[in-house]
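Hi R.,

As promised on Friday, here is the backbone we talked about, encoded as structure tokens. Could you run it through your design pipeline when you get a chance and send me back a sequence?
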């Protein structure tokens, strides 16, 4: 970390008021946060526009669903094979390049008469870039924010992502009433260009964390093996990966659940918005009302009970009661504020970018698996039974992972490095 960056971080720790206000007092974080908001908006616009564009061109529900699903599918491949790039190149340069490549892909998709096959290839390319970008950005946060400010900064990044699920797709769909899909893709490309400009002008240049030894692919594979071979890191990765895989089962069966409740599209929207709303509320309350030690203490208990509201679907609740249960599940996700600090402390600094890329890739990939599995099971079982089963099995799995997290942390002394 540069002398200027260290000075910025130390001053931020001493700011009065603390909490999220202290995070926004760090100028470099303001640039990173604004860039994140723009890239999230661009991603939402692109996803909605592509689904509309493909459906209008083909009339195929399968192809329009596939173009959306391609946002999940490449994560595992990219996270394992490209994560080595996150530490062997200066982070600011890599983030700017990722944004520029994403913008170029979206603007190319907006060109009239772009073949359908090219749309799928370009969509896949954007999805391949995403894990590398998010991993590098997450690692960079630890350079500009230290101690509890890093935890709160990560929390703000997640809050933006969850809020986009609540309102982003609705606004994207509304915008496409007036904007042609290809124009919306150009808008999405412009947001990524603005994000690149903010990162280039608003963040400090720092050297690469690791030397370039061997090919990026070989280094990525070796790093994944090393990270998964560490008992503490592996336990924390599983704690990040397992709960979301079961959380999204409810989203995967939301449509048949709302249909069974005769709730219509309004009921479906309410049900889908419940869990991300709970997540935002839980993170904001934990970030503003609790200190670092308290957030550490509640992390494991919250994770342990996070899926019990889903298990309560055994009683076949009404859609409104089901939405309330999903709101509770989302609120329990505040356990991630404790997990953030544990993970960054467990990972060697020179591997931080690769670890964050692997973490993000695992979350997205297993979410795709969970959503697909939930949809397949809903073909055979009632939707409320599928959600209940996910809650029960997920709770059992999480309890096993929590034992590993607790056991590997017994000799770890928490506290900012």
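Update: got your reply. Pasting your designed sequence below so it's all in one thread:
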């Amino acid at each position: 970390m540069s002398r200027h960056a260290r000075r910025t971080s130390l001053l931020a720790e001493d700011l009065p008021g603390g909490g999220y206000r202290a995070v926004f007092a760090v100028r470099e974080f303001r640039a990173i946060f604004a860039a994140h908001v723009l890239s999230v908006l661009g991603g939402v616009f692109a996803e909605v526009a592509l689904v509309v564009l493909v459906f209008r061109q083909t009339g195929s529900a399968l192809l329009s669903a596939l173009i959306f699903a391609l946002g999940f599918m490449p994560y595992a491949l990219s996270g394992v094979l490209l994560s080595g790039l996150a530490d062997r190149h200066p982070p600011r340069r890599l983030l700017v390049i990722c944004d520029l490549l994403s913008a170029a892909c979206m603007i190319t998709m907006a060109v009239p008469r772009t073949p359908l096959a090219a749309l799928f290839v370009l969509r896949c390319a954007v999805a391949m870039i995403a894990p590398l970008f998010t991993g590098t950005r997450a690692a960079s946060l630890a350079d500009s924010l230290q101690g509890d400010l890093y935890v709160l900064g990560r929390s703000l990044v997640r809050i933006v992502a969850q809020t986009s699920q609540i309102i982003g797709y609705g606004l994207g769909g509304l915008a496409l009433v007036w904007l042609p899909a290809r124009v919306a893709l150009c808008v999405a490309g412009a947001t990524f260009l603005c994000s690149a400009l903010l990162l280039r002008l608003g963040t400090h240049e720092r050297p690469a964390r690791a030397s370039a030894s061997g090919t990026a692919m070989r280094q990525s594979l070796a790093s994944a093996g090393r990270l998964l071979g560490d008992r503490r890191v592996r336990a924390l990765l599983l704690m990040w990966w397992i709960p979301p895989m079961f959380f999204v089962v409810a989203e995967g069966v939301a449509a048949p659940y709302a249909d069974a409740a005769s709730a219509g599209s309004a009921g479906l929207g309410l049900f889908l918005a419940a869990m991300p709303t709970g997540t935002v509320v839980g993170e904001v309350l934990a970030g503003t009302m609790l200190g670092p030690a308290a957030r550490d203490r509640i992390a494991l208990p919250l994770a342990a009970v996070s899926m019990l509201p889903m298990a309560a679907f055994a009683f076949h609740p009404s859609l409104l009661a089901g939405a309330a249960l999903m709101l509770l599940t989302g609120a329990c996700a505040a356990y991630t504020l404790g997990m953030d600090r544990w993970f960054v402390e467990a990972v060697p600094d020179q591997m931080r970018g690769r670890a964050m890329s692997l973490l993000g890739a695992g979350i997205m990939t297993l979410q795709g698996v969970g959503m697909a599995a939930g949809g397949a099971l809903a073909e055979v079982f009632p939707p409320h039974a599928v959600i209940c089963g996910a809650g029960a099995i997920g709770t059992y799995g999480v309890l096993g992972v929590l034992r590993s997290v607790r056991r590997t942390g017994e000799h770890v002394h928490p506290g900012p490095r």
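One thing I noticed while checking it: The chain has two domains: 1-208, 221-417.

Thanks again,
M.
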